[in-house]
Amino acid sequence: xxxxxxxxxxxxxxxxxxxxxxxxxxxxxxxxxxxxxxxxxxxxxxxxxxxxxxxxxxxxxxxxxxxxxxxxxxxxxxxxxxxxxxxxxxxxxxxxxxxxxxxxxxxxxxx
Amino acid sequence: xxxxxxxxxxxxxxxxxxxxxxxxxxxxxxxxxxxxxxxxxxxxxxxxxxxxxxxxxxxxxxxxxxxxxxxxxxxxxxxxxxxxxxxxxxxxxxxxxxxxxxxxxxxxxxxxxxxxxxx
Lengths: 111, 119
Hints:
The complex is a heterodimer of chains A (111) and B (119). With 111 residues, chain A is mainly beta. Chain A has no helices and twelve strands.
């Protein structure tokens, strides 16, 4: 069975600092991976996705993620965060007709 | 804006009651998926409908049921509500379904959710 692990429940960071949110997945088949962001009292917004091809995926709002098959990871990065990036971030894997989500990482950006 | 809308925004019910949540998908999207997100957790897959038929179900009891209509709207019905049903319910629409054996996957676009509180 496929699963997703987000090891960090909370990541505090100062504005303009770089950030990495970690995601590891478990799967025995080809995977499609996603990062979604959830702002307070809102639904999920797609940041980026990996389906195939280049392992470095660029998304919206300056975020990028790298698919690493040998380490079964799909970490999300941003070189310089803004206050407005404060939100909950979810990593997800496609498991034949459904998305399996991790438990989320709360990114808190401080001025 | 994903073009996916949900109603109502908030809902309060008591144990044992029944509830219907509604979702309007993006025009042209044949697939709708429903997820339950408990407080502090990631969304959990409830079920998916493709062209008005159920196309996959997660680990939820039969009292969770759904309908999809030709006009890109859909419903999630929950009978005999329990306290643990309190959660944010999200619907997501996509074009032609997920992997489905075609080696492709289609991005799911989420609505803002319905916050259900069961007292």
